[in-house]
Amino acid sequence: MDQPATKSRVNLSGLPAPAVRAEIRSGRWQGPTAGLAPGFAQANLVIVPQKAAYDFLLFCHRNPKPCPLLDVTDPGDARPRRAAPHADVRTDVPKYRVFRHGQPAEEIRQINALWRDDLVAFLLGCSFTFEAAMVRAGLPIRHIEEGRNVPMYRTTTSCRPAGMFRGPMVVSMRPIPQADVPRVVQVTARYPLAHGAPVHIGDPSAIGITDLARPDYGEAVTLRPGEVPVFWACGVTPQAAVQETRPELMITHAPGHMFITDLRDEDLAIW
Amino acid sequence: MDQPATKSRVNLSGLPAPAVRAEIRSGRWQGPTAGLAPGFAQANLVIVPQKAAYDFLLFCHRNPKPCPLLDVTDPGDARPRRAAPHADVRTDVPKYRVFRHGQPAEEIRQINALWRDDLVAFLLGCSFTFEAAMVRAGLPIRHIEEGRNVPMYRTTTSCRPAGMFRGPMVVSMRPIPQADVPRVVQVTARYPLAHGAPVHIGDPSAIGITDLARPDYGEAVTLRPGEVPVFWACGVTPQAAVQETRPELMITHAPGHMFITDLRDEDLAIW
Predict the structure, then answer these.
(1) Chain B within 8 Å of A100 (Cβ-Cβ)?
(2) Which residue of chain B is at minimal alpha-carbon distance from A269?
(3) Distance from CA of B41 to the nearest CA of A (A)
(4) Which of A214, B90, B108, B233 is 20 to 30 A distant from A80 in Cα terms?
């Protein structure tokens, strides 16, 4: 209480997941979550009505690379009992995006007013987990170096449909020096619950990407001579599917504003 | 046609999965499937009405060690489009077990007469996949040496419930020489879609098993001096859950009479 609130953001560095979520819940932190609660796994959030939940659950099972499932709540229950039993999916994400009939309708800071007894929340692993492993392995992450959002692209690879859900796989791209490509496969393959190994290495046109300089989401980054574009399945894939599927209501996190779980990054590793 | 059918079983050795399934479908092979179609992944089969399918799908997601999902059919569709697109789950298992309201009702050779437009089939990975890897690694498999069914036990470890489904985890046990225990963890951990690494090593009482000589399913095997009992999550777990859950109808394979997929054992490996 001695220090008056200022316009500058609170300093959350080094706080563990529950403390960071408390700052987000209180509204004191409203920004992106990259770099917060290091060591804790962050997650994509997808909320749909129970009527659509079976199809979405099956969609995740059939497309585990873009949609690696960490937790599914019971209908109407806002607590992810496995991933963060004391959290609340209605308040603990800094910014939500609401889709109605497949169209982005609004971005809001919490969703208490939209909550219903039939809503089911899905938490999907996120690339921050494997990027932390890349940093530990000394591998470059261009979009971090350049202070940008990771570039993401719709591909011509279709997801395996499940009931009402269908759509293209969305991928993120990171430029990797040719000599490091085997290593980046090894390092990221350890985390199948965070998209795992790349889905494509090299020629973007082979997966229907015509211009790396014009991503469909995020921002372009520099591809240097001797570097190979490496592509990972991306958690934005459900947001592309929702545009084709048009469920009555879908609520997600806003890009970069993730749900921070109590799981450790290493809980998402396979060995 | 030159060789008249005899009472002895047909010789299927070395045939690939589709040919073995054709023999099963025709009724020429009605026995257990252990050792058939080497290199192809065999699967546990669980069929439930669509009304129970969401709960069972979520049960599998929440309990991936006993219930590693390989494929889920669309309601009324008897073809597992991913695991064996030309197969038919109604005819391609040598023996089925039918549960009504949680009670085993009958064992039958095919289920065409029971098929309905609302039935959903789940294929779950099976220990045969990691046992083949153990053989390749030179590790002993006692129940095969002794010509018995693997011993299986209900434990005091509860599965994470999902809707109507709840129940104890069932485990299989294999005696492993003390010096080989780390190796058997490594070898089986490669196959998370076939139950993966053991869930418990050593003291049976720690997971509620009072007498190794009296398994709940299968047959007891010899535990020799210097050997450690090693326990893996088991695909019989859904059959234990059904007794607590009592869905109107559930159809499974009969023990040891598995569904043979077109997937390779290596498709179930993580690295």
Answers:
(1) no
(2) B270
(3) 18
(4) B233
